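To close the section, here is one more complete example, presented without commentary so you can practise reading it yourself. The ligand is iron/sulfur cluster.
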Amino acid sequence: MVTNLPAIGTQFLLDAAALAPLIPSLERRGYQVAGPTIRGAAIVYDTLHSLDELPAGWTTEHEAGTYRLKKRADDAWFGFTVGPDSWKRYLHPPEARLFAARRDGQSFQIVEENAEAPRWALVGVRSCELAAIAIQDRVLLGEHYGDVIYEARRRGLFLVAVNCTVNSPTCFCVSMHSAPPAEAGFDLALTELVEGPRHRFLAEAGSRQGAEVLAELGPAEATATDRREAEEAIKKAMGGLQRSMRTAGLREMLYEHFEHPRWEDAAARCLCCGNCTMVCPTCFCTTVEDRSAVDGNGAERLRKWDSCFSENFSYIHGGSVRMSAKSRYRQWLTHKLAAWVDQFGSAGCVGCGRCITWCPAGIDLTKEVAALWEPAGPPRNGGHPAPGPR
Ligand code: SF4
Ligand code: SF4
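Output:
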């Protein structure tokens, strides 16, 4: 048993039962706790009051356009990979009120938004998801154009990371340098070890707050054997990834292949439904909607998630700039993997595979990128852009 505060970066061992006070400990500190749980036929992120609400004994099967829950042979709590939800909705909510106005005689008054940002403790954040939060930090905590809603929620955040010891066929985090083990950006990191009735966790504090919570769980220092077991479990999962992406020179290739025939091919399959952008943990685009009360006494302005796949998204006075599925798919993929680097210093993709699993047409960006790497062949129309919607 550790009597002083556990050292940051040192690995400790906990029996699964010893983690039971984790959520009460976080709640006592004023956090609302969210984590993975089963709703309907999927593992989503929702409010948790007890670790009993985790999807113990369940895993998920993924392929392009396919997702299924499946029973595991053991009672692992985190024996699955990412689902349709991402943590972005806790930090960059799908809908947020920017302001409201109330009629005051012949004039109106702006109603102040006094609601305090919730303080979330997120349990079960995978290393690709930590990387996604770091990307959104770069976008939304910018020095000149910071987003106040994101900033207030991000400031109060407590992150419990979980290192993946399973993978899905749609994961390609190794290619995007976001694979476990998580090295930074968390308060507490766990690695689950299940072997028959032995159910244990390696735990590591990444911050002072994390060390305080860990101290309350009564951890013992991990032995070299425990550490090796955890390392091997992660390594085995990452060694088995089935998808990858060639990233060296990707930005330049995408800019050069602006008129590659593969864009037409992808467009013929793409439904422009926007699912890929909704499930993506880094996509951040929004639109603004005004609503007024039917009695004329009030109005409010809302910010809502939007998608570059909608026609209205690129509406500029007189019409939309991107009228075709080709121009929208090309915009999304080229922004993610090329223009994002110019704007924010890294790609906007962490290799979580959500956009592959949740695309109803089964479009797989790793396959699209592989095809785009192939020489484009001689330019069509003598190099002039094809007529029609772009
Ligand atoms: S683009 Fe796809 S794989 Fe990359 S982070 Fe977004 S959802 Fe995940
Ligand atoms: S790529 Fe797939 S998920 Fe994205 S808009 Fe097209 S059909 Fe929808």
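Once you have examined the tokens, check your reading against these statements. The longest strand covers residues 95-104. The pocket of iron/sulfur cluster (ligand 2) is lined by residues 270-276, 309, 359-361, 363 (CB under 6 Å).
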